[in-house]
Design brief:
The structure holds 2 protein chains of 2 kinds.
Chain A (H helix, E strand, L loop, with lengths): L14 H17 L14 E6 L5 H12 L3 E6 L11 H9 L5 E6 L4 H6 L5 E7 L5 H15 L6 E5 L6 H12 L3 E5 L15 E3 L2 H7 L2 E4 L15 H8 L3 H5 L6 E3 L12 H4 L6 H20 L2
Chain B lengths: L2 E5 L1 H19 L5 E6 L2 H17 L4 E5 L30 E9 L3 H11 L6 E11 L10 E7 L5 E5 L9 E5 L3
Parallel strand pairs in B: 2-3, 2-4, 4-5, 5-6
Antiparallel strand pairs in B: 1-8, 7-8
Helix pairs in contact in B: 1-2
The chains are: A alpha/beta, B alpha/beta.
Protein name (chain B): Pyrimidine operon attenuation protein/uracil phosphoribosyltransferase
InterPro entries (chain B): PRTase-like, PRTase_dom, PyrR_bifunctional
Pfam families (chain B): Pribosyltran (PF00156)
Chain lengths: 304, 180
């Protein structure tokens, strides 16, 4: 049983909550590898996926998780909706809830949007990303994937590389990794690292080679051009030269590290193809685990 | 709450042997048969049955564990969702003769859920149900066991508990708890 009715962010979860989600996800991982990958648990639950921002992977993953749990699913995207006609967020969601919807999975470009909603509506809310704030299910599937590959998260050294400034994945990962007892470092150019991030108890490193030498796991983030209001580095070519993870860099280490990426990948920018497709990369495992972890989250919240 | 012992260790042992003899009679060399123990307590009985068949007949029987949590019909009607146990079925059940094993048969809802869970792994040729204790006249659904260790008359508020050494009991036994 989780200590919360909603999943708004990793910050609100306890370590016990995360372990409960992992144990439930273990069972769902077994379910999605059966010949028939569907269970009837949520057959009387209706879930609305309300996406005010573009998404491919997360939306697909949630929808698949919901359908594998036998929930009824409706999809809403802001483009072409009443939002464009001036309807407020609360009115939009209340109209959806009037159709007897039990859960809302929401992505919004404004940090705190799901937190605001949780104070005004009765349905369970799952945050599928709110601006540059949090993306809790991504952090849960990332840490679940580390646990699966390395046996445990506690005591592991994890570096998050790249655009930390605009990344909700980075923030949720920092919270999740720290709650589970991992050491966290962020690495990137100073222009892409928030000013006081060391106050969260993470190490800061500008040299990618030193960061990779230090870590057991490297979680490489995409450069989020769509969120950058000013130019934070001269060119993607220069970023790739200084912070791109390539085979030469990986081969120069005297150990094997685990390579992760939340997707979508900009091949040749933050990571080269030969690294992304190597044995050390668990990028596709992360995608598979995403469905199991989201099934676990929905199952545990819908039962409350 | 008062308890009465309805099976002691010796009787439990004899009952398990008798159930195994019945299985051997119906399944022969178990070439196309397998056992699925229902989590959590049916698994202990399933392991015991397989071990006894090996002792009696020298036959190795495939034993799996089946968790029914996600197939229950009471989701959302409880305080909190139930945590699942492990499902381990490292073999194909398609076209096999499956023996579902549980310690106590009460309302039949667990077995109904087990059939739903089992069918996600394939379509067996035949399904049988073996229970150590059948609580007669308590069924919510039309399910009856193929093999019964002991039948008992009980009322809704009573409980039947099977105690195994694997779960820390000093003596293996079956208890019926009575109302105060």
């Amino acid at each position: 049983m989780l200590s919360t009715r909603h999943l708004l962010g990793i910050k609100d979860l306890t370590e016990k909550d995360i372990h409960t989600i992992f144990e439930t996800a273990d069972s769902f991982k077994e379910v999605i590898n059966r010949p028939i990958k569907k269970v009837p648990s949520l057959r009387d639950v209706t879930i609305a996926n309300v996406f005010f921002e573009n998404s491919t992977r997360t939306k697909l993953s949630f929808e698949l998780a919901e359908k594998r749990l036998s929930a009824d699913v409706i999809n809403f995207s802001a483009s072409g909706s009443s939002v464009k006609k001036g309807e407020t967020l609360l009115d939009t969601v209340n109209n959806i809830l009037s159709m007897k919807v039990d859960m809302i999975v929401m992505r919004h470009s404004f940090p705190g949007a799901p937190h605001f909603l949780s104070k005004h509506i009765n349905a369970n809310i799952v945050n599928a990303g709110d601006g540059t704030h949090e993306h809790p299910t991504q952090a849960l599937l990332d840490t679940f994937s580390i646990r699966e590959r390395l046996g445990d998260v506690a005591g592991k050294k994890v570096v998050i590389v790249g655009d930390i400034l605009h990344s909700r994945v980075a923030l949720s990962n920092i919270f999740a990794l720290q709650k589970l007892g991992a050491e966290v470092m962020v690495c990137g150019p100073n222009t892409l690292i928030p000013k006081y991030i060391d106050q969260l108890g993470v190490k800061v490193e500008n040299d990618i080679r030193k960061a990779l030498k230090w870590c057991d796991v490297a979680n490489i983030l995409r450069i989020q051009m769509e969120r950058q209001l000013v130019k934070n580095f001269p060119s993607t070519r220069e970023y790739s030269m200084y912070y791109g993870v390539n085979k030469e860099l990986i081969d120069s280490l005297d150990k094997e590290i685990v390579i992760m990426h939340p997707g979508p990948i900009n091949r040749g920018v933050e990571i080269t193809t030969d690294v992304a497709d190597s044995e050390q990369a668990i990028i596709l495992d992360q995608v598979e685990n995403g469905v199991a972890v989201r099934m676990a989250v929905l199952y545990l919240l819908a039962g409350r | 709450m008062a308890k009465v012992k309805i099976m002691n260790e010796a009787l439990l042992d004899i009952t398990i042997s008798r159930l195994c003899q019945q299985l051997i009679e119906n399944h022969g060399d178990f070439k196309d048969s397998l056992i699925l123990g229902l989590q959590p307590r049916g698994v202990l009985l399933a392991d015991r049955i397989a071990k006894r068949i090996k002792e009696l007949d020298g036959t190795d029987v495939s034993v799996g564990k089946l968790d029914i949590t996600f197939h229950r019909d009471d989701f959302g009607r409880r305080e909190a969702p139930l945590m699942p146990s492990k499902t381990e079925i490292p073999f194909l059940i398609e076209d096999k003769r499956v023996i579902l094993v549980d310690d106590v048969l009460f309302t039949g809802r667990t077995v109904r859920a087990a059939m739903g869970a089992m069918l996600t792994f394939g379509r067996p040729k035949q399904v049988e149900l073996l229970v150590l204790v059948d609580r007669k006249y308590s069924r919510d659904v039309p399910i009856e066991p193929t093999y019964i260790g002991k039948s008992v008359n009980s009322i809704q508020s009573q409980r039947v508990t099977v105690e195994w050494k694997e779960t820390g009991a000093e003596e293996e036994s079956v208890w019926l708890s009575l109302e105060d």
